[in-house]
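Usage example:
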Amino acid sequence: MKYIDEYSDSKAVAFLLGKISELSLKIGRKVRIMEVCGTHTMNIGRSGLRKTLPENLKLLSGPGCPVCVTPPEYLSATMGLLEGGAIITTFGDMTKIPDSRGRKLSEYPETKVKFLYSPADALKIAKENPAKEIVFLGVGFETTAPLIAAVIERAKKEKINNFSCFSSHKVMPPALKALADDRQSRVDGFLLPGHVSVVIGRKGYEGLDIRGAIAGFEPTDILRGVKELLEQITGDEKKIVNCYKRAVREKGNSAMREILYKVFKPADARWRGMGNIPGSGLAIKDEYARWDTVEKFNLSLSAEPEPEGCRCGEVLKGRCIPPDCSLFQKSCTPQNPVGPCMVSSEGACNAYFRYEVAHDEE
Amino acid sequence: MKNKYIKKEDGYGGQATRRLIEEIIIPVVDNPAADRMDDSALLKVKTRNILFSTDGYVVKPLFFPGGDIGQLAVSGTINDIIAQGGEAKFISAGVIVEEGFLIDNFKKIIESAAAEARSAGVEIVCGDIKVVEPGAADGIFITTAGIGERINGLFRDGISPRDEVIVTGAVAEHGAAIFQARNDILEGTLEGTAVIKSDVAALNGLYGTMEKYSADIKFMRDPTRGGLAEVAMELAEMAGMSVELSQKAIPVKDWVKGLAYITGIDYLYLACEGRMVIICGAGKAEGIVKSLKADGFSDAARIGEIKTGNGASLKTAAGGARYLTSGEIAQIPRIC
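Running the assembly step on the lines above writes:
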């Protein structure tokens, strides 16, 4: 198929793999590259690339799946809102994650929890249920936040006052800084998220002291990014290079950032497994407080523990890979997940379960 | 059974469905023909090998691009008989319809069921109709049962390494068409609605190849719910061998690829309703594919082979390899 098949052409892939092998051999030591975006993780699995890479090159999955990095207390607070009579609207993956007490949104009837493809549908539901409070679970990065900002803006304009957004939105660059500073993660280079980069541009990463390659999502895109990082290592360089020029501009998409920062302001945020990262969250501005679930319901969130034995936090930081977790594939499966990385279709554990390990029939 | 209630997944046709049947139905029904859990039961009537099959149809929407519930209810049961090596002969239909259902739509559904049977050389010989209160049957539900006769000589040999895997046409079109009909993903695009069609069809066109190559064909299964991947996984488990498919060889239309690409669904897990997977002995695929093409199955292709080992895997177009696992479910309920 045009513009898709070309990017998984086996000859082009073989050429890039050859280069990557040469470079890895030259470097000699173990190289650790983190793909930050969940879609990268998924497509590495789906295209079967991991097994084709040289022995000393390790691809680690980072904190790029929005559902995975949402802290447990956010889910508990959501359950509280639900019990209080609010209708929860959300993207699908959120409904399958157990909270600290093992409850899931998917266990509630469709009249109380509605999963949406477009956040704009939440406004429709609000209009149809004027006596109910409609809460939209705002989970995502620079990519989804502008859409939700536009919805909040519309709610204000149309005075849809029974709608509010429970924002757990996050931005990438501060998390990258935290990972680069994390000694145990020992990341040599980052495959930077293509979609986030469409919004923030190459310029959005300025000031970070990391090796980075902005990469697209097809096999050749991913390998090109890996090759770029290996070249930087052999050349002893540290810079951010845009390897996804067909989608990412130097300055990104200013229209999207404009609506994003019209409604949201930077705030501190807790990331699952990574703790509090200053300036890494997006809170709703005071002018829109009426549509901010936290303000409206006077919520205060305090940190809750991870499920026992779950190593999602370490997976998200690249400190271990999913099969290292003793729950993986045993008590934790996509049908019966313990941690968020097994739930989300962009989660690292889910990707390993689906594509990287053989399955014994029980 | 661990669960207290029937879940949606119990109807997907995969592991959950199997568990439900194995744990609740098989122990009490306890019949050697049923225990095999094949698409249709092989019964000995005097000296003849009779195949008997039944299936319920609850597809939503009732009218979808390329077909409707009437056609599907007939072709689906015919194909279950064919998958067991049979030539389908007779069909019965039980119809449960809601009060208030449009007579015009009812007529359309029955007419397309009749047309499908006629063109497949199958007679609809008996039936039943019940009317239930509005909302009790989501419009209309149809159950069909079919009788056929086994073609002599098929499935003599067991599956062994180096056997070849064939599919009779482009995959995933029914699942993709239903998904599109429910979500309007491609609506208004250039290639849009004209090309989007379910592959729903009775596979009576396979009879010629089945007869001609009966000594070489070892196994057949129609990749309905769970698609090609589910068949590969079941086959691997059943044979205790590994099934290796090649992504490049698997026929798939551009519109299906595009829809899967946009939505993130893996098309290998989307249902077909007019395709058959055939396993044949080593070196026999070429002749069978040629015969299929001559009989109008123009996209038929050899898509993989059986190896020692276990599990189903895919050689990707990019040149990598990955497993096909039950972790990946194209969760689209009520497709048939």
